[in-house]
Amino acid sequence: MVEKQEYRDAMARLGSAVNIITTDGPGGRAGFTASAVCSVTDTPPTLLVCLNRSASVHAAFTHNQVLCVNTLADCHESLSNLFGGKTPMKQRFEAAEWARLATGSPILTDALVSFDCKVTQITSVGTHDILFCEAVALRRNDDSHGLVYFDRRYHPLMRQTAC
Ligand SMILES: NC(=O)C1=CN([C@@H]2O[C@H](COP(=O)(O)OP(=O)(O)OC[C@H]3O[C@@H](n4cnc5c(N)ncnc54)[C@H](O)[C@@H]3O)[C@@H](O)[C@H]2O)C=CC1
Ligand SMILES: Cc1cc2nc3c(=O)[nH]c(=O)nc-3n(C[C@H](O)[C@H](O)[C@H](O)COP(=O)(O)O)c2cc1C
User: Fold this and answer.
1) Does this entry carry the keyword Transferase (predicted)?
2) Which of 15, 70, 97, 130 qualifies as a cystine partner to 108, CB 3.0-4.6 A?
């Protein structure tokens, strides 16, 4: 049996992109930071997002059934911490500029890429809900650098430039 802390210490060694997941609709506007995001299939274009059921934002996401995965750029470290818990929702959204695409979920205007999605399926595993999300619209900023969360810290990920 692997203990929780031992598991977390091991998972801290997996570098991952950092994303702010947003939603808006009858369940209200909400957003949180997530590293547990990955591509599932391109037909139909589907990502998954793992959301802790105890998070304050959980009800808004399951009610609205739409969300946007905003993948962060290197300049977004403090924004990631703001959406990483405990800060009031109004204060989280006031710290950046937002637009809308198809679903009405907030699109972070300078995100590396934004996947505007409808939630097609939800499966519960342990403490988390896995939200399967079909992308209905996309927006990219092709000149931005990336941001990776690795070893409990943020690291900029530089795009290769011509030499
Ligand atoms: N999947 C999740 O729910 C994640 C939650 N977090 C939360 O962010 C805060 C800071 O995290 P770290 O600095 O990375 O240190 P940490 O020691 O709390 O977590 C290390 C790694 O373990 C995994 N992890 C942490 N909490 C988890 C959870 N409840 N369920 C599944 N996997 C989990 C993640 O891969 C994380 O990067 C913590 O409160 C943590 O709970 C962070 C990453 C993923
Ligand atoms: C780098 C980082 C990655 C995170 N990844 C996830 C994640 O994948 N899934 C999740 O449920 N929470 C994740 N969290 C925690 C949520 O962002 C946090 O619980 C959320 O903002 C809700 O907090 P609240 O209950 O105070 O509103 C992460 C936090 C940080 C800082």
Assistant:
1) no
2) 70
* Cβ pair 134, 46 in contact under 8 A: yes
4-157 fold = Pnp Oxidase; Chain A (2.30.110)
Q: For a pLDDT cut of 90, what percent of the chain falls above it?
A: 96
Write out pLDDT tens, residues 102-124: 999 999 999 999 999 999 999 99
Note the ligand closest to the C-alpha atom of 37: 2
Distance 163 CA to ligand 1 centre (A): 38
Q: How close are the terminal C-alpha atoms of the chain, in Å?
A: 50
What pTM, to 2 d.p., does this model score? 0.97
Map out the domains of the chain as residue ranges. 4-157
Helix (H, G, I), strand (E, B) or coil at 79: helix
What is the residue with the minimal CA distance to atom 5 of ligand 2? 34
Quick one: which ligand is closest to 81's CA? 2
pLDDT averaged over every residue in the chain: 97
* ipTM associated with this complex: 0.97
Atom of ligand 1 nearest to the CA of 8: 22
- Shortest-distance Cα residue to atom 19 of ligand 1: 8
